[in-house]
Amino acid sequence: MSIDLKTIKHISKLSRISVDEQKAEKLAGDLNSIFKFIEKLNELNTDKVKPLTSVAETTLKLRSDEVKSKDIRNEIIKNSPQDNEDYFVVPKVIE
Amino acid sequence: MSDITKQSLSELVKNIKEKKLSSNEVTKAFIDRSEKSKELNAYISEDYSSALEKAKKFDEKQNLDLKLPGIPIAVKDLFCTKNVRTTAGSKILNNFVPTYESTVTQNIWNEGAILLGKLNCDEFAMGSSNETSFFGNVQNPVDKNLVPGGSSGGSASAVAGQLTPITIGTDTGGSIRQPASFTGIVGLKPTYGSCSRYGIVAFASSLDQAGPMAQNVKDCALLQEIISTYDSKDSTSIDFKRNEYSKELTKNIKGKKIGIPKEYRVDGMPKEIEELWQKGIQYAKDCGAEIIDITLPHTSYALPAYYIVAPAEASSNLARYDGVKYGFRAKGENLIDMYEKTRSEGFGAEVQRRIMIGTYVLSSGYYDAYYLKAQKVRKLIKNDFDEVYKKVDAILTPSTPSSAFKIGEKKDDPVSMYLNDIFTVPVNLAGLPGISIPAGHDSKGYPLGLQIIGKAFDEQNILNIAYAMEEKISFKNKINDWWIK
């Protein structure tokens, strides 16, 4: 299997990372060598194996739904790249 | 008292408790040495003036019952520290100041420790040489232009170079053990669920664990007993009985069964590593352990499986960096354009590569072939360990397939860089504890490490084996302070 430039463009759209021609070519080369390495897994027959999703074989604990942090809006907003004191500001979405 | 920074954590604690040293003297000594060590580039952010204030405050009202009384400690910049910039080694978090504290760092402050600063690391902990950091390479104190390993490279360099008495790192595929091995220090990756992940910048959530890095096994055990707590803020934190590891530490490992997995004898492994391993086996025997040959048949599939699971989880975890609520934002013509440019300019090449791999293996039509397959292989790897642990108490392997390499040597070949973690990755996939201890030098005088892998929740046992072997090995790091003028 080989990852072509079209696929790179598609993945870049899905991951919301803009990629120009030069970068796409470099990425295609890198990803192909990495996937060639990953292909080794196909040597194994895993039809009857159950996938392991978590090594911690415990059931998730329930907890009460409580508010623990209060009045931290200003602190949180302080980290935003752009705000109007009350809200995060982003480029216009609806014309 | 001279040479404060040469003292181990245990010695510093003893001297402060006996009032032979003040927290102020100790803190000043580590700050002075850190200031003289800028060439190592171990720090991303320094917090010296507030460290000195805290030390003064501690000395005014000393609480000597604490386990880390007034001890200054620098930590990996992957732990959120309240009101202190936390970058994860990335441009995208260059100006991020957390409004909360990670549980493991809170645990060490609760025992009296004082934050010295935040240590350099590979961007989002993705790397094995600290070369992916936005804040530049870190130098290995062992030799100039030598990588310290990664991703906890700044942490390893700071402990080996005596800029901090101990530190905490994180380990997703070897990020504590590999740099510990490259710099001649001790590093422990605890059982998954032992240390809370709350407040740690997430990389691959089913693999990430915080752990101690120290000059010796005893200090490592002490730090582990402090940072390992059950935490309801981390849904995968496990509520089990935790030992007081440092108090229960013993060199008596007589009759312990230690397995030697034949699959770790990989093609192209330098002779020096094989010799080190044989020496390690002899030391373990000298300590009274019984050596048993074992097989972990799926070992060679661990790294390929890891490079599906870890990027898949990373691509999902890193979706949050979109330039809206915090962090770096690039200008865009519209919202989508802003997202795409922010992430393209904010993330470095290795992080983008891994997000792309992760996105691809999770994308429609490929999920079963890659991600599901990798999870099945992960099960087989865990089964291998479960099977051998019916016969042995622990496993002994080399920590890395080579000693530290030069800066730039492997930078352009991702696969050869990934091979660094060939002996450490299976441990993360199976959620087990593993410790790397310095065990010798190669012909260039660079440190080499041995890894002891334990059963889940059996940190005490591998710490004991490490403690016993440490005495037999009596390793001395060859560091000549080359960076201090």
Task: Walk me through the structure.
With 95 residues, chain A is mainly alpha-helical. Chain A has 3 helices and no strands. The radius of gyration of chain A is 23 Å and the shape is flat. By secondary structure, chain B is an alpha/beta fold. Chain B contains 15 helices and 11 strands. Chain B has an 8-stranded mixed beta sheet, sandwiched between helices. In chain B, strand 10 and strand 11 (447-454) form a beta hairpin. The two termini of chain B are 22 Å apart. Classes of the chains: A mainly alpha (95), B alpha/beta (485). At the A-B interface, helix 1, helix 2 and helix 3 of A face helix 9, helix 10, helix 11, helix 12 and helix 13 of B.
Question: Count of DSSP helices of chain A?
Answer: 3
Give the radius of gyration of chain B.
21 Å
Shape of chain A: flat
Structural class of chain B: alpha/beta
In terms of per-residue confidence, which ranges of chain B show pLDDT below 50 for 5 or more consecutive residues?
none
What is the straight-line distance between the termini of chain A?
43 Å
Report the top-level CATH class of one domain in chain A.
Mainly Alpha
What composes the largest sheet of chain A?
A: none
H-E order of chain B: HHEHEHEHEHEEHEHEHHHHEHHEEH
Beta percentage of chain B is 5-15%
Tell how many strands the DSSP assignment of chain A holds.
0
**Please, how many helices of chain B?**
15
